[in-house]
Amino acid sequence: MGCNTVRCTVELETRAAQPRLSGDVSLAEITEQCASRMLCWMQQPDLAEEIGLSVEPSLERTLDWIHRAALKSDIRAWAIHHCGVHIGNIVFDQFDRKAGSTRMSVYLGDPESRGMGIGSVAIYEGLTRIFDEAALHRIWLTVHAENSSAIRVYQSLGFQIEGRLREAFLRRGKRIDALYFGLLRSEFFRLEASL
Question: What is the dihedral of CA 134, 137, 139, 140, to 10 degrees?
């Protein structure tokens, strides 16, 4: 399976700049069939750097990660599909059952799918699912301070900046601060009720 994907338009119905799930954006279980596409994305230097990949990607590591995610114990992950094509992933990990929290990460591996609102729709659906499934109180994430498009998306979905991790990312040889975001269950469901 190659890295090319089919492009089609995504129509987002919005109210107060909040996404509604569109029929051509969906989440699905990540399976072994996703492995070669995921590996191809991780081998793109710009994406690997953006997400802070610290080990050399391999098919074996990718398949191992997919198998761990399938157990649904310490990783909960979905493939993001656009028009039926796998274009990225949304992942919840680092679960703290006592505190009721988890980390979220998301990436669109297909560069042509970025900037179309697909990530916003996918994150909204992922948040809805994980809050429903896991009895969580809060979700957190980090993003480098120069990723303004991601920051806008997270804030539009109710995430609040809770802190700054100084020089936590290394991007193109330059140290960059990371922003620490959090979203409480009550904040998300207030947002959802307003849609």
Answer: -140
Residue 162's CB: how many other CB atoms inside 10 A? 12
| 133 belongs to a structural domain | yes
178: domain range? 23-194
Say how far apart CA 45 and CA 91 lie, in whole Å.
20
Query: Does residue 124 lie in a domain region?
Result: yes
Q: How far apart are CA 104 and CA 118, in angstroms?
A: 16
d(CA 28, CA 86): 9
Burial 96-132 (b: 16+ CB within 10 A, else e): eeeeebbebbbbbbbeebbebbbbbbbbbbbbeebbe
**Full-model pTM:** 0.84
Q: pLDDT tens for residues 105-164?
A: 999 988 888 888 999 999 999 999 999 998 899 999 999 999 999 999 999 999 999 999
- Kindly report the length of the chain: 195
Q: How many domains does the chain have?
A: 1
- Whether 90 maps to a domain, the answer reads yes
17 within some domain: no
Tokens standing for residue 178: 């990371």
- Domain harbouring 169, CATH code: 3.40.630.30
> Mind giving me the DSSP string for 22-63?
-TTEEEEE--GGGHHHHHHHHTSHHHHHHTT--S---HHHHH
